[in-house]
Write a structure and sequence with these properties.
The protein is built from 11 helices and 5 strands, in the order H-H-H-H-E-E-E-H-H-E-H-H-E-H-H-H. By secondary structure, the protein is α/β, with parallel strands linked by helices. Helix 5 packs antiparallel against helix 6.
Length: 388
């Protein structure tokens, strides 16, 4: 007896339908047999009818059992085919799954390699950036130390003055030749100027003095109320005017220095504040012939001074240049004469070479005639004599 629980449901449905058809056919045959024997049933008694019915039922059962065996055999064959197909499909599915797993593993390995490389690259970039950050932090620390040192310098009045003088020295030495200026030059009145630029007369040597009114400027920047601001502005104006007066009295010496001097402010911020909000102080400096300059404007002024010094040097050397030009013209004249003589010598040599060429050609022709006379026959000799 086959195991119907293991059979596919679709096959069971088909088998049920076939069984229903077979049962219907058997019942139809049984009904026909009953109708055929209806006449005989009337003649037979009740016991014969029962025996016939039992025999018909036995025959029908046997037929149905045979048909059921056939159906079971067919179902078993189909189940075997289905099992074989299922095994084949299982193997195919297993192989496909294995192939996909292998491909997935390969892709995962490749992806892991790429991610590992990216992670390593990112780590190296992070380390590089951390190194840059560390360097920047060290630079910031060094800058902070330098700022603190710079603040210490600016807080000391003498150190602040030295700082302005150093900056002035750097600017002047970069823009002018060494002989065009003197640092810490002593004047005839005993005053020592931070820088004396040796300009020709007019205007004459001009003094540059470095000043740094930092305290009053800081007070002006730190003022919060109008009263504090007015007090700081008054102190700043007083400090600058005092510097202007000191420069005008100390460094403007008639006949020795120019009729004006430069007050050098080493800070562009102080210079901007002065020209932006204290124009009256600047005008007072103009009237006192003291011109206030910053590092930027001083460079422009020194550029003009360098051009003036260059023009003066050219004028001083004009006579020497004129003499040198005259001597150069004389040398060029002698060179032209000697070149002309050399050209004449070459022309004469060319003429002599032409004469030598003509003489050589004549000598060659005479030699050829002499050779012809020696090698020719009598007639030739006669002709040659006649020709001679």
């Amino acid at each position: 007896m086959p195991d119907f629980a293991a059979i596919d449901p679709a096959l069971l449905i088909i088998a049920g339908l076939l069984l229903i058809v077979l049962l219907g056919a058997g019942m139809a045959a049984l009904a026909a047999a009953r109708r055929a024997r209806a006449a005989e049933d009337a003649a037979l008694d009740q016991s014969d009818v029962l025996e016939r019915l039992a025999a018909d039922l036995a025959r029908s059962s046997a037929v149905q059992a045979g048909r059921m065996d056939q159906v079971s055999a067919a179902l078993s064959a189909q189940q075997a085919q289905v099992d074989a197909r299922l095994q084949i499909q299982e193997r195919m599915i297993a192989e496909a799954v294995d192939a996909r797993l292998v491909g997935l593993a390969a892709r995962l390995d490749h992806r892991f390699d790429i991610e590992g490389q990216r992670a390593a690259q990112s780590a190296s970039e992070v380390r590089a950036r951390l190194a840059v950050i560390d360097q920047a932090q060290r630079l910031i620390s060094d800058l902070g130390e330098k700022v603190v040192g710079f603040q210490d310098i600016l807080s000391n009045k003498q150190a602040r003055g030295a700082f302005g003088e150093v900056q002035l020295t750097d600017l002047v030495s970069q823009m002018l030749p060494p002989g065009a200026y003197r640092m810490q030059a002593t004047l005839s009145n005993g005053r020592r100027a931070d820088c004396l630029i040796n300009l020709p007369n007019p205007p004459g040597p001009i003094v540059v003095d470095a000043k740094f009114p930092l305290e009053s400027f800081h007070l002006l920047r730190q003022a919060k109320t109008d009263a504090e601001r007015n007090e700081a502005a008054r102190a700043f104006r007083t400090a600058v005017q005092a510097h202007i007066k000191a420069i005008s009295e100390r460094y403007l010496i008639p006949g020795e220095t120019a009729d004006g001097a430069l007050m050098f402010l080493p800070s562009e911020a102080v210079y901007a504040e002065l020209h932006g909000n204290f124009q009256d102080v600047v005008d007072k400096g103009f009237r006192a012939r003291v011109w206030i300059v910053s590092p930027t404007t001083l460079m422009a002024t020194l550029t003009t001074v360098r051009a003036i010094l260059k023009d003066t040097r050219v004028r001083e050397q004009a006579s020497l240049i004129r003499a040198e030009v005259t001597a150069l013209l004389e040398d060029l004249g002698r060179l032209d004469d000697r070149t002309s003589k050399l050209v004449r010598h070459f022309e004469q040599a060319t003429e002599d070479l032409r004469g030598l060429r003509i003489s050589a050609d004549r000598a060659t022709r005479r030699g050829e005639r002499i050779e012809a006379l020696q090698l020719g026959d009598g007639a030739g000799e006669a002709d040659g004599n006649a020709a001679g």
